[in-house]
Amino acid sequence: MAAAGWLRRAAAATVPRLPSSLPLIPPPPPAPLFEAQSLVVPGLGAAVGPAMELMAVPKKKVSKYKKGLRNGPKALKPVPVIVRCRCCGRVKLPHFYCCSGERGNPSESSS
Fold this sequence. Notes:
It is found in: Mitochondrion. By secondary structure, this protein is of the alpha+beta class. The chain has two helices and four strands; from the N terminus they run αββαββ. The longest helix has 13 residues, at 2-14. The N and C termini lie far apart (133 Å).
């Protein structure tokens, strides 16, 4: 018991006493135990909070064969378009030159 009284007196002696003429200032509020940490992403240049959107990442690379199987039905299909020349009547593809635009036989055109 005597040791406890000695320790109490020693602790009281080390605490500085404030003069009674000074007004009492309330202590600052305690810091929160858990603060939301921000993550700095180098590409964005700004701090990103904890509600950052995460994207799905594939586990393995998709091979060219598998990609081709998946995208095959999306390819454009060739449409067979055949038109007749207005001058000579021969079958040709659109936007292709057939004759010089003269009516009649294209082989008889003037040279």
